[in-house]
Amino acid sequence: RSRVAVLISGRGSNMASLLEAAARPDYPAEIALVVSNRPDAGGLKRAAQAGVPTAVVDHKGKGSRQVFEEELDARLREAGIEIVCLAGFMRLLTPWFVNRWNDRLINIHPALLPSFKGLDTHARALAEGCRIHGATVHFVRAEMDAGPIIVQGAIPVLDGDDEAALAARVLAVEHRIYPQALALVASGRVRVDGMRVFLDGEVSEATAEA
Ligand code: GAR
């Protein structure tokens, strides 16, 4: 089983969905470490309750991004981590870190990329009148919210939706597709070619179906 670290900044509901999936005996990854850049992240308690080792690498008082990322990188390597999952990790990572973990660093974004990179994705999808919205799991590249797409999940936007209602339905999608995407990567069934992700030589069925 691949050793995975989950990086969080907040409540950690996506982290919890990964922990739940990894508790199944046939799941190809184990969550070996949860790291937060904020000491008060709610997800830290949840991880500890599940018996997963946790660490805080506080970005405050570090002087520079590079110092923060070197410490983070050292923690991950000490723990023998092979794959890193960003799950509501709200720090931009520099090209140095992203390149070190190339094709082993994945992120979940609450929109159908390449639409709505950045923040406030649900409000923006509503403001643009989108009929379809969703979430994306992708490999991280130096450019924010860009990188080869592993799995996407879509839902219709309903007439009665406000930001909170839409966010809740997208979150349910996130909790479904992140474990699915991590399983594909951890089982070594994913091949990256430019911006495209292939599964066992074919376009990922999960990408097409989710
Ligand atoms: C999730 O909706 C995730 O997609 C989003 O933050 C939330 C974290 O929730 N990530 C981003 O916006 C990244 N820019 P969680 O802590 O409950 O998983």
Distance between the termini: 24 Å
- What radius of gyration results from the CA coordinates? 17 Å
Largest sheet: 7 strands, mixed
Structural class: alpha/beta
Biggest sheet, spatial arrangement of strands = 3-2-1-4-5-6-7
How much strand? Answer: 25-35%
Order of helices and strands: EHEHEHEHEHEEHEEEH
Structural topology:
Layout: E1 2-8, H1 13-22, E2 29-36, H2 42-49, E3 54-56, H3 65-78, E4 83-86, H4 95-100, E5 105-109, H5 121-127, E6 132-139, E7 149-156, H6 163-186, E8 190-193, E9 196-199, E10 202-203, H7 205-209
Parallel strand pairs: 1-2, 1-4, 2-3, 4-5
Antiparallel strand pairs: 5-6, 6-7, 8-9, 9-10
Helix pairs in contact: 1-6
The chain binds glycinamide ribonucleotide (GAR).
Glycinamide ribonucleotide binds next to helix 1, strand 5 and helix 6.
Short description:
With 210 residues, this protein is of the alpha/beta class.
